[in-house]
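Chapter review: from sequence to fold.
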Amino acid sequence: MKNLVLRFDADLSWKSWSAITLFGFGFLGLAMGVEVSERPGLLETGLLTKAYYALGLFVLGGLDLGTPTNGPLFGRTLLWIAYFGAPIWTASAIFETILSALRPPVWHVRNIKKKIVIFGGGELTLAFLNKIMAGGNPRRVIIIVDKSLHPHIEELRSYNGIRVFATSGQQIRRLRRYPLHTAHKFLLLSEKDAINFELASVLLDHRPELGSKIVYHVSNLRFLRVMQETKVVQQCTTFNQYELAATQLAREWLIQRFNATEHRDTVVLAGFGRFGQSILEQLERHASDSFSRVAIIDLKAEQRALIADEQVATERNYSRHTYEGDIDDPEVWQRLFKEVIVGEEEPVFVITTGDDETNLRCAIWLRKQFENALIISRTLSPSYFAKSVCGEHDVVSVNTAELVEASIPHAWYR
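The token string follows.
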């Protein structure tokens, strides 16, 4: 019994807790010995029977039980509250279901004048919503989500004042019926690049002058750069979340470290996916004279280094070393320590694989090897545990979501 803990579960809605409370009132009233006019033998029945009748209040509201007659005043009061509250709760739930079924699709969005219209329901949308909410006036926001992409609909609707409309991809084209030029901004934040490009094209085809109001996300940087000369890219504002996060990371931690050291640093990138590639690109753009060596550890280090080379137009003025393998492999690190980390200067480690536990373990292990190195460990989402452990070991814990949110320009949503 000591493991039985009763607590308020914040994940349950107030609707659920109100139903539990009303059932509890009805059951407690009957259990306290309250008699009802139409069931004179109810007082002698067991608790399971009383629970059954308490549940029945949500359907019949006490019509089959009759009115409370005898018993403790407190018990009768609880039962009367359940008599009135339970059927009201049931009726409200039915109306809510009907309204949800009749919720207007995208072409019934009435007024978009001076509104921020967001397409998409993923983590990126939540990051933009947090920035918008911090700035006030959430009633300016309309969110349109594609049901097939399994968006965070309930979480989106938890933001007060924001209207959310769920639709299908085929219905998006009906936006042409609206005076789209009256909207304040269009934020195209779908997790699929094809949808964002298609929406931008639809909006520009409707009114070319809408380009200045369109901001859209592209996850595939290689594709974006190939499309640089197209109308849909040139007339709108495009961005990549990993570029935003890498820019914030470089500005907040890496460049400050470079400025604090007299020597040119050595940078070790453990994990070289889209985020790691974006970090290196930002360093090449804004701090190319501040580091002399870059070591890359990744299962596809050579291939991804060549992909990164496609994105850089300037000549490298540092030496680059690639190590194919897992960052859990001690042999990889032994080779790196022998070939790259020379002299007494301690390097900068940025650990950005897709496994949070691996990143954390590697960061703590590296701290034992290098007392004064800057060590950054990335988590995919905010983690109090990671921040706590990293704080104990003088490791910087970052996550992509918070980095993106911190770097979103005000001009994109104001």
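Two observations follow directly from the output. The longest helix spans residues 73-101. Residues 25 and 78 are 5 Å apart (CA to CA).
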